[in-house]
Design goal:
Elements (H helix, E strand, L loop, with lengths): L1 E6 L6 E4 L2 E7 L3 H7 L8 E6 L13 E5 L5 H13 L3 E5 L1 H5 L1 H4 L5 E4 L6 H9 L6 E3 L24 E3 L2 E2 L2 E2 L10 H4 L4 E2 L2 H10 L4 E4 L8 H11 L5 E6 L7 H9 L2 E9 L3 H6 L10 H10 L3 E8 L8 H12 L3 E6 L7 H8 L25 H15 L2 H8 L6 H20 L6 H4 L27
Parallel strand pairs: 1-4, 1-5, 3-9, 5-6, 6-7, 7-8, 10-13, 13-14, 14-15, 15-16, 16-17
Antiparallel strand pairs: 2-3, 11-12
Helix pairs in contact: 7-8, 8-9, 12-14, 15-16
The protein binds cobalamin and iron/sulfur cluster.
The site of iron/sulfur cluster has 12 residues, from helix 6.
Length: 467
């Protein structure tokens, strides 16, 4: 059996040099996790393609195409699905967006998978083999225990040179919090921890010293995290991952984190203002403590990518300059900005829709780089302009050096990371695709819901077809 698994292009965080493309991220686990689930079955030949770094083989004529869909890539995913089905290849769609919007997704697929696929995928492949692929498979047990006994992902099937960190390890699923804009608590209703022994087995299997963790907030169960970090120390690896701003609250946990080899953390600061944090359900983050948090992380030689969001209902037009100033003051090594985005399925989406504030239903705009809703205290244009001005100001060379030069041994990583975002900040002003498509289209010109261009051949549509 020949199975092609695709992650459509998300059009971001990558470097192009001629035909060479590298993503500035860790390798995603969605496809390599699926491919591992059928174990040693030697009669299954998988091809895994992350379109952000490699082209999709449009002439594939095997038995099944599986496509992993997040909201921002839904358009591309549906166009690819159409393409392969028109060639007579069966298509299954799964992932975050399909789980939130199964009724939409089934228009474009022979089969949809709702929720986590660990307990589903092997049976689905067997059904396909027997000619009895069902139209829908739902996570079983619902929100259940599927993280025990998972195989090590098939990292070998992804192109290693495509990523800054080609080996990604998973510790947990879900999150203990429920911020209003976040998809995680919506689709993974329970926070689940993998057995420590399974995680350690995976880390041992990583060739070389470095790996990444892409879990959204793996250290919120402090006792579990301590047990895991303790077990990681003897492995003497170096790693990077994500954490909430509470990571330094428990001194023992933080000490173990440092000793386990943590060198990089992405922290979702979200806002420099406490009322905004409270408003989105992230009041457990204390903006007043961010300076001290940064000081402690730097003391431990951890490089910090700090993500900030603009467009909250508490945001006023002065938020942009204030955020840029605080980031300089706290010396956040690699800052990143996003526009508040109501992903379908989230509380935020429901609220903004009921208030009549959604401006675009084109999922291609849901990449956190476009304004897709009407902000409360400023116009959509002011939000977009503030967002890209903040990018431009933050990534001026003088500001980059101001933040990173005192970083000692962290300086090279932080500096290179900043240069990447500097290129991106420039793109925001230069490239047509970033020209505020929603607001420039006019507020009342709502885009056709998840429309797929059926006239242009898929190869000519570009990675992110736009209306
Ligand atoms: C790596 C990653 C990326 C990578 C790859 C994207 C991708 N397609 O996953 C990159 C860097 C490109 C990326 C970009 C962005 N990302 Co991202 N990313 C992740 C991250 C950290 C890990 C994904 C992963 O490997 N998960 C582990 C695997 C095992 O889980 P999984 O993907 O859900 O797969 C399971 C099931 O969903 C299912 N499944 C998934 N695909 C398929 C396919 C088939 C055929 C089947 C049967 C089953 C199936 O089976 C798997 C096993 O159970 C997740 C958070 C997370 N930890 O999941 C966010 C996440 C996917 N990203 C998110 C967001 C918001 C973004 C950005 C907007 C962020 C930003 N501001 O920059 C951009 C999107 C840009 C765009 N144009 O849309 C959101 C998605 C929300 C949404 N509704 O789309 C997530 C969930 C984080 C969050 N807090 O909400 N991201
Ligand atoms: S934003 Fe972070 S802390 Fe909040 S629910 Fe999502 S993953 Fe959890």
């Amino acid at each position: 059996m020949r199975i092609l698994l695709i992650m459509p292009d998300a059009n971001m965080h990558k470097l192009h040099v001629g035909s060479f493309v590298r993503s500035f991220r860790e390798a995603p686990l969605s496809l390599s996790t699926l491919a591992a689930l059928t174990g040693d079955a030697t009669d299954i030949e998988y091809t895994l393609v992350d379109e952000s770094v490699d082209p999709v083989p449009l002439d594939f004529d095997g038995d099944l195409v599986g496509i992993s869909v997040i909201t921002g890539t839904a358009r591309r995913a549906y166009a690819l699905a159409d393409h392969f089905r028109s060639r007579g290849v069966k298509v299954v769609l799964g992932g975050v967006h399909v789980t939130a919007m199964p009724d939409e997704a089934r228009h474009y697929a022979d089969c949809v998978v709702i929720g986590m696929a660990e307990r589903i995928w092997p049976g689905l492949v067997e059904d396909l083999r027997a000619g009895g692929l069902k139209p829908e498979y739902v996570e079983d047990p619902p929100s259940g225990d599927f993280v025990e006994g998972l195989p090590t992902p098939r990292w070998d099937l992804m192109r290693k040179s495509g990523y800054m960190a080609p080996y990604t390890v998973q510790l947990t699923r879900g999150c203990t919090h429920a911020c209003d804009f976040c998809m995680v608590p919506v689709i993974w209703k329970r926070f689940q921890r993998r057995p420590v022994a399974d995680v350690i087995r995976d880390i041992r299997a990583v060739p070389g010293r470095r790996f990444a963790v892409s879990d959204v907030s793996p250290f919120e169960d402090v006792e579990y995290a301590k047990e895991l970090l303790r077990a990681m120390i003897p492995l003497k690896k170096k790693w990077g991952g994500l954490a909430t701003a509470r990571i330094t609250d428990d001194p023992e946990l933080f000490d173990l984190l440092v000793r386990s080899g943590c060198q990089f953390l992405l922290v979702g600061f979200e806002s420099v203002r406490q009322p905004a944090l409270r408003g989105i359900g992230k009041g457990f983050h204390k903006a007043a403590d961010y300076a001290e948090l940064m000081r402690r992380l730097h003391e431990a030689h951890i490089v910090v990518q700090g993500t900030f969001v603009f467009g909250f209902d508490h945001d006023t037009p002065d938020v942009f300059d204030m955020t840029v100033d605080r980031i300089q003051e706290w010396k956040v090594d690699i800052p990143r900005y996003s526009i508040y985005t109501p992903y379908p399925g989230t509380r935020l989406f429901q609220r903004l829709e009921s208030e009549g504030r959604i401006l675009s239903w084109d999922w291609g705009d849901y990449d956190t780089m476009h304004v897709v809703f009407r902000p409360k205290n400023m116009s959509p244009v002011a939000l977009y302009e503030g967002f890209r001005r903040a990018y431009r100001d933050t990534f001026r060379l003088k500001n980059i050096l101001g933040r990173t030069i005192a970083g000692g041994r962290n300086f090279p990583i932080a500096f290179v990371g900043n240069l990447t975002y500097r290129v991106y900040a420039r793109r925001l002003y230069r490239q047509k695709a970033f020209e505020m498509p929603v607001t420039r289209r006019g507020e009342h010109q709502v885009v056709t819901r998840h429309a797929v261009d059926r006239k242009t051949p898929v190869k000519d549509q570009g990675a992110m077809p736009r209306s």
